[in-house]
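Need a sequence for this fold. Nothing fancy.
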């Protein structure tokens, strides 16, 4: 069976959209590409049947996810069996692509409805179809980040982390709101191209594409949808510019905290022997001693930087004692925490924790990671199928924490404007999940404190992509983000999304060290609309719209099938 060029064009358009969109994420820098990358997909869906729309959406999603998550392959060098790593990449890509398939099915269904003959007020239904594309995308983006464990990695809004005025939109309605604005612009581009197709292709081909659409917009400029999108984008940019300026002024006026972030650039846990552990401990201590010359108010070490099981490891206790003595400041460090359930318990609970120490190896505060990595920190269903525990790459599974915690820190280095504020820890990829950062803001945090270890994905684009997610959390909550990583990007992020200082690029080797900065932390932070209301303002209604639309379309198809059978 030979495929005609007309049948190959829609899949080619979906693949082109996926590859164009990939250029908007690290390691590439084409953030502007995201404003038209989706246009080929939207154009193909405009003339597709619902079934074709599902396939096109899935093809787009699978191609985009496979290329943007290719860093997962690095796990094969860090204790992950190659077969399982490939299966994980394919499985995660396919599952998340199903939400793009849902998007394709719904958008194609809506446009198919507008092509019904004798449809009253066709211009009204076409306008609804055009606007629905952005709402459906935002709803699907919310679903992919919350269904089951959720995986909100690389939302469309993350392409704009360097475009601060545009990025400021996420403070209103989170990443889905900005993603919807961007899809609206893409839809405007697609509509303009669709008008040219109708005007310039042959009459036979035009009638096949446009069959049953009824009255066309002869009174309407072909560029009107794109013009509306441009006006919307300009309004977003203008408002965002004012907000960025206001946030920068507020950061300059807030009490200053001098913070030292240590970036040891140690090898992954599976590459460490006793000598490597000793070298990592020496790096942590030596960089802390050097940072002490700046008189820090707080020293931060990355995730799982302390050796052994806390609080029972003597080497870890000695390391903390020496570090606190050298810096004269509180220390936040990541550690594996062991908690026996009863005296003499040999099979107690294990937590991935962030610990606060003050002047001695006595734990002054503990935060336990709440959102664990499936197949990394725990194996799903392992309690019911114990044999699955053998798949744990670290040899054990962690228990989740229950609530956010606040670490109180005083800016003792300040000669004026002295204050004590609360820092809220996040661990590893917890800064990818908006609800965790919102919980911290609601608890009264003045700043977010993220510790991570991206050595698992050394030499890939994952650390830079991970940084983009962290920037989104800072802007959404309106709080500064202090971020210490091992092999990744260590950085100070202002509430506007501006990076004050950074160290590391995730490539590993040659970038160990520390950075210090004075960063303004408000004592009584003003919550952003998104921090107050979360996804209830925009993303959840969009998700509800997606589910309602899916139910209505499914019921209509079922009723038509019943009539045909009769």
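Here you go.
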């Amino acid at each position: 069976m030979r495929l005609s060029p007309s049948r190959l064009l829609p899949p080619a358009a979906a693949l082109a959209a996926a590859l164009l969109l990939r250029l908007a994420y690290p390691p590439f820098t084409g953030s502007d590409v995201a404003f038209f990358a989706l246009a080929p997909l939207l154009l193909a869906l405009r003339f597709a049947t619902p079934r074709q729309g599902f396939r096109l959406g899935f093809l787009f999603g699978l191609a985009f996810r496979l290329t943007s998550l290719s860093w997962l392959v690095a796990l094969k060098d860090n204790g992950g069996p190659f077969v399982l790593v490939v299966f994980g990449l394919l499985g995660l890509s396919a599952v998340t692509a199903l939400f793009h398939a849902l998007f394709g099915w719904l958008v194609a269904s809506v446009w198919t409805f507008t092509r019904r003959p004798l449809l009253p007020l066709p211009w009204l239904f076409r306008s609804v179809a055009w606007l629905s594309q952005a709402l459906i995308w935002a709803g699907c983006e919310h679903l992919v980040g919350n269904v089951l464990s959720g995986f909100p990695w690389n939302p469309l809004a993350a392409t704009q982390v360097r475009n601060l005025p545009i990025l400021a939109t996420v403070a209103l309605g989170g990443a889905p709101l900005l993603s919807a604005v961007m899809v609206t612009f893409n839809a405007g581009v697609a509509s303009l191209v669709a008008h040219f197709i109708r005007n310039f292709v042959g009459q036979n081909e035009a009638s096949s594409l446009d069959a049953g659409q009824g009255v066309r917009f002869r009174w309407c400029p072909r560029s009107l949808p794109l013009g509306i999108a441009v006006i919307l984008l300009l309004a977003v940019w203008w408002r965002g510019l004012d907000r960025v300026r206001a946030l920068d002024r507020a950061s300059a006026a807030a009490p200053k905290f001098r913070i030292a972030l240590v970036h040891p650039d140690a090898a992954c846990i599976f590459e460490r022997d006793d000598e490597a552990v000793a070298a990592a401990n020496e790096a942590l201590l030596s960089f802390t001693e050097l940072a002490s010359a700046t008189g820090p108010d707080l020293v931060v070490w990355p995730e799982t930087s302390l050796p052994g099981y806390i609080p029972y490891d003597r080497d870890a206790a000695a390391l903390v004692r020496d570090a606190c003595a050298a810096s004269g400041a509180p220390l936040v460090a990541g550690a594996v925490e062991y908690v026996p359930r009863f005296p003499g318990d040999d099979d107690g609970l294990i937590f991935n924790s962030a610990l606060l120490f003050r002047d001695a190896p006595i734990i002054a505060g503990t935060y336990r990671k709440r959102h664990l990595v499936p197949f990394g920190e725990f194996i799903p269903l392992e309690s019911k199928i114990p044999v699955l525990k053998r798949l744990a790459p670290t040899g054990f599974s962690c228990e989740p924490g229950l609530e956010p915690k606040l670490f109180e820190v005083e800016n003792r280095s300040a000669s004026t404007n002295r204050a004590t504020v609360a820092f809220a820890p996040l661990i590893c990829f917890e800064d990818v999940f908006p609800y965790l950062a919102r919980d911290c803001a609601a608890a009264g945090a003045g700043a977010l404190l993220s510790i991570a270890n991206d050595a698992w994905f050394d030499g890939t684009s994952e650390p830079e992509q991970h940084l983009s997610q962290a920037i989104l959390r800072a802007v959404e909550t309106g709080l500064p983000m202090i971020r210490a990583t091992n092999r990744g990007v260590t950085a100070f992020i202002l509430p506007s999304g501006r990076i004050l200082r950074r160290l590391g690029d995730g490539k590993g080797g040659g970038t160990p060290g520390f950075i210090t900065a004075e960063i303004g932390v408000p004592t009584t932070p003003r919550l952003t609309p998104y921090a107050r209301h979360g996804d209830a303002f925009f993303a959840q209604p969009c998700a509800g719209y997606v589910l309602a639309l899916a139910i209505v379309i499914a019921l209509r198809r079922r009723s038509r099938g019943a009539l045909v059978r009769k």
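For context: The chain is about 45% helix and 15% strand.
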